[in-house]
Design brief:
By secondary structure, the protein is of the alpha/beta class. It contains seven helices and eleven strands. The chain has helices at 7-13, 19-27, 45-52, 64-76, 114-127, 141-147, 203-213; strands at residues 35-39, 56-61, 82-85, 98-103, 128-139, 152-156, 160-168, 174-185, 188-199, 216-222, 235-241. It has a seven-stranded mixed β-sheet with strand order 3-2-1-4-5-11-10, sandwiched between helices. Helix 5 (114-127) links the parallel strand 4 and strand 5. Helix 2 crosses helix 3 (45-52) and helix 5 (114-127) crosses helix 7 (203-213). The chain is globular, with a radius of gyration of 18 Å.
């Protein structure tokens, strides 16, 4: 999706996001100096952390505004990261193969139909070298059906305030997030409104899509742990490998 106005305050709203925990999870699968593509990289927080670990990172995102912020951060930290305006469903123009593709912060949940998820998995398979790994996290069906609907989140400080309300979407395991945020501009506040739609699927569905794309060794844990998902798990962490030998 294209963020308009939202990118400018995204980092403030995500101040408490556990980016370091995402990177710690990714690092379990990485060899030193791995070539990684960060898909749906947003403002580059995970890309930067991976680059600081010594990895060779390429970031792609559908939002040019987000990418502009990511590039500014990389330049400020003297990190050589290539940020490209690409749609994960229609990735083109890459000649190199990556050791890993990561899709973090529930970015995959913005794909609202099965075909788009399947296309994305096929694209990731093509981007990876033999033996490469795809890592992504998504909201669980439990979170979409039981936690988000009817929930309201709010925060207020002197510079930025927001109200975030979530309701059920039209499709099974989908939600609609309506956000209003207020940004101080001199003595006034500018209001911005956003609507974000997300959808997820059961793990078994993701596993079937991954297998169809050619992946193997598909594994799932939950909620930044090494434990299998329980009944009330809210986030799947899924890994899948491209075979070392392609038949």
């Amino acid at each position: 999706m294209i963020y308009q106005g939202f990118a400018g305050v995204y980092d403030e709203l995500m101040t408490h996001a556990p980016y370091d925990e995402w990177v710690q999870w990714i690092q379990q699968y990485m060899k030193p100096n791995a070539a990684i593509i960060d898909v749906g990289c947003g403002t580059g927080e995970i890309s930067l952390r991976l680059a600081e670990k010594g990895h060779k990172v390429t970031g792609i995102d559908l939002s040019e505004e987000m990418l502009a912020f990511a590039q500014q951060k990389a330049q400020a930290k003297n990190q050589s990261i290539q940020f490209l305006h690409q749609d994960m469903r229609e990735v083109t123009g890459f000649e190199q193969a990556f050791q890993a593709a990561v899709i973090c912060c529930d970015s995959l949940n913005y794909l609202k139909n099965e075909n788009d998820v399947k296309k994305t998995f096929k694209n990731m398979f093509q981007l990876l070298e033999a033996g490469g790994v795809l890592l992504f996290d998504v909201h669980t069906p439990y979170k979409m059906e039981e936690v988000f609907p009817g929930s309201t989140y709010a925060d207020q400080d002197e510079e930025i305030s927001y109200i975030w309300q979530s309701d059920k979407g039209d499709d099974m395991y989908s939600v609609i997030h309506d956000l209003s945020f207020f940004v101080k501009d001199g003595d006034m506040y500018q209001r911005y409104d956003e609507t974000h739609e997300q959808r997820t699927f059961p793990f078994e569905t993701y596993a079937a899509f991954l297998e169809s794309a050619g992946f193997e060794q598909i594994e799932v844990t939950a909620d930044f742990t090494n434990e299998a998902p329980g009944e009330f798990a809210e986030r799947y962490f899924i890994s899948a490998k491209k075979p070392k030998t392609i038949v």
